[in-house]
């Protein structure tokens, strides 16, 4: 009888202890997307990075090419709420909130990287930061867009992972006047240097897209600046000649797929990927 009483006492203590801890301790799911080690890529720039593929008259057609299809558990995105979720287009829907977003280069890039080197890149984490209509001056250190990028980049690596590269597609806004166009090279150079410093990654790869279009007449001035940027681990792919939407400014869905593949090829072929 004494043994039975002791057993009941121990059982009661166990139940009380379990109920206390279950109500006071948060159980962390280390198998969830937050705690998966990820190869992180920052997506920054303006509307052609945010994605306007398939957007006509402020409405997205919803067409998803095979190269852009989601891969649950393999391609993740950091939402505006700083939580990782399975990625799908439009990647920037909760980031570039004042515009209608469609297909950008991000998903095509991620799929191509995973296919191109599945042993090296196992889970891709995309961090959308692009804002339509933004000039490069708005991405300078201390500004809202720059600080937002830094904050999101820091959140992206908290649960495990490493920032592999920044994908940059911007400059259309800076074609509007000659002053901004002529200052573009130095502003871009400073942006890259500051970003690497603040992310504590002095040779962080930056893969940029040379313009296919612009909002003003100084497209070639900005393109020249993009091609002449002289910094290590800055790689340029060229979107010139790719199919544009009827607005003559934004890339079509097919063109965005091509840009994503070009960005992926640049990443895979460079020593930065090793």
Automatic annotation (TrEMBL):
One family name in Pfam for this protein: SASA
Keyword terms of this UniProt record: Hydrolase, Signal
Domain of life where this protein originates: Eukaryota
Sequence ranges assigned to domain Sialate O-acetylesterase in this UniProt record: 38-269
Signal is among the record's keywords: yes
Cleaved signal peptide residues: 1-22
An annotated Gene Ontology molecular function: hydrolase activity
Keyword Hydrolase among UniProt keywords: yes
SUPFAM superfamilies hit by this protein: SGNH hydrolase
InterPro entries xrefs: Carb_Esterase_6, SASA, SGNH_hydro_sf
Protein name: Sialate O-acetylesterase domain-containing protein
